[in-house]
Amino acid sequence: MSYDNHTQSKNAVLNIKPVTARIGAEIEDIRLSADLSPAEVAAIQNALLKYKVLFFRNQNHLDDAGQETFARLFGELFAHPTVPKRSGTGSIFELDSTHGGRADAWHTDVTFIDAIPKISILRGVTIPETGGDTVWANTAAAYQDLPDGLKSLADHLWALHTNEYDYDAYHSKASEEDIRYHEEVFTSTIYETTHPVVAIHPETGERTLIIGQFTKRLLGLSLSDSNHLYSLLQDRITKLENTVRWRWSAGDVVIWDNRATQHYAVNDYGQQKRVVRRVTLKGEVPISIDGQKSKMKKKEKAILDPAILKQLYPNGPTSPKMDSIFRLYPAVSCFGLRDIILSLKFPSLLRIHQINSAYPRLTTRPRIS
């Protein structure tokens, strides 16, 4: 695909300022809204394909509704598969640092399903005075930089992706609140999907690497070999020369091509509050270089483990996250599991007795570790 006229599309001219030579550009002098002309939308799309990440400052006029109506210019809205959307919105995914929203691991959004979202649009709402930057990496450029032998190997590899992963291993600074959020909400439904490690970008034809935080293992390899090769490829993707870093201000909007990037929210702002809100757009199922499509292998409601419940709530239902459990499991048909959930309302000794008596009646007995 040619980008010769990326600053102009059918008489729409964008003021584009590249941030680095490999990834990222700031677009100035534009007010994002649903009122953009088709030519302006096309120009933004072309710039996105070229630069992978676009930065827009001073979009303070956008609220949740405005962000969603603007996003619809570029495709169909996509709601997160497990995390409830922000109240009053069609699909907005809120990352609030005070409620487990610290995405401090390299990832491409939602690769644990088959049709990976194509575009993400993130808006800065509450930004800490210091820290809280986000970094993006170009997975297409990373592939191009691989030596030929490693390209040939990666071209034919497949990986298993899941949202059920070792949270502590990826998030060394994870708080108790972060871990609870992951246990209760993010993995309320367990997904597993196989993706080609190298996929063909549906619009540019570029080869991109699909790995990151949700990668459980590379298929056809021993666990040791999988871990070593994953680390090698991931190091290539996140090489500093292949990245762009953005210092947020409230009202900033960032759009990225989720099919050709990974990103990382730097967790360096202590107890300061950081809130960003994301809209994602539905994408296509990735296709390998030999034409095979990604496949979802598993989609199952998680079973609450009594041991985990006792660890999470040793003193009864005092956590504000308790509401999320009852929201996620309002119509449980398994009486044993229903009793376990209801037992959280009881005082400590009675609750433990209720859990122990209900556990043998579970239709699928969870593993206690």
From TrEMBL:
One GO location term (cellular component)? cytoplasm
If you read the UniProt record, what top EC class would you report for this enzyme, in one word?
oxidoreductase
EC? 1.14.11.77
TauD/TfdA-like domain: from which residue to which, for each copy? 16-280
| Catalysed reactions, semicolon-separated | 2-ethylhexyl sulfate + 2-oxoglutarate + O2 = 2-ethylhexanal + sulfate + succinate + CO2 + H(+); a primary linear alkyl sulfate ester + 2-oxoglutarate + O2 = an aldehyde + sulfate + succinate + CO2 + H(+)
SUPFAM superfamilies according to UniProt = Clavaminate synthase-like
Q: Which GO terms describe its molecular function?
A: 2-oxoglutarate-dependent dioxygenase activity; metal ion binding
Which Pfam family, any one, appears in the UniProt record? TauD
The protein's required cofactor(s) are namely: Fe(2+)
Q: Which family does it belong to?
A: Belongs to the TfdA dioxygenase family.
Its recorded name reads Alpha-ketoglutarate-dependent sulfate ester dioxygenase
Organism from which the protein derives: Heyndrickxia coagulans
Classification of source organism:
Bacteria, Bacillati, Bacillota, Bacilli, Bacillales
